[in-house]
Amino acid sequence: MKGKIDWQKKATDWPHRLPELQIDVLQTALLVVDISNDLSEPVSRVLPNIIRLRDFFRQQDLKVLYCLVGSLLPDGRDRHIKRRLTWHRSSADAPEKIRAKGTFSYQIREELKPLLPMELVIDKDTGSAFNSSAIDRLLHAMGIQNLVVSGLITSRCVENTARDAADLGYNVILVEDACGDRIPENHQATMHSFGRVFGSVKSTAEVIADLSRLLAQEPSTGKEVTT
After folding, report:
1. Architecture (CATH level 2) of domain 2-73+107-215
2. Model pLDDT for residues 173-214, shown as the tens digit of each residue
3. What pTM was estimated for this model as a whole?
4. Domain map (residue ranges) of the chain
């Protein structure tokens, strides 16, 4: 079920854009980044679209993966010192707060509860999933070439993961209305740069429409099914 989809067609101000790209929809997975219990805003703004994507991928028997960021050790010693001194605090004078594996704050929100053991949950203690987990090996083993990326925070863990994936050769779609950032300007900056250089930026509706069209094609002829 291969076919062309719009890729960087909207980036008309970028001379090196790739307007279209052929993908195989059966080699496509949804990656949900860091939607854990201890996050509030901007979760409420993006969660409905992430659920919509998750449900679509499940209905079409396409892969769904999740990743969580935090400490794999209860005292946080597996995270480098700069991260412990900054990201573990809500402000400069606040006490250290460790999000450790096995605690409530580290777990995926109930609304997105994975279908275990069929849906992988990948632990990471860095911003990018590709720097501290086996995600690259797992994706290759499952035959995944295309990643639809959603989650939090756009300008941090989402962007780091998406850029690393693109650099490794994956075809990456950032879902603009299924990613969120506490600073709107940072969200827009990520979408602007990523959609010109690294991959594609689409809305939830556009992703579902593109994949639905490819899924509706006859595998043997490549022609769309008509009724």
Report:
1. 3-Layer(aba) Sandwich (3.40)
2. 999 999 999 999 999 999 999 999 999 999 999 999 999 999
3. 0.91
4. 2-73+107-215
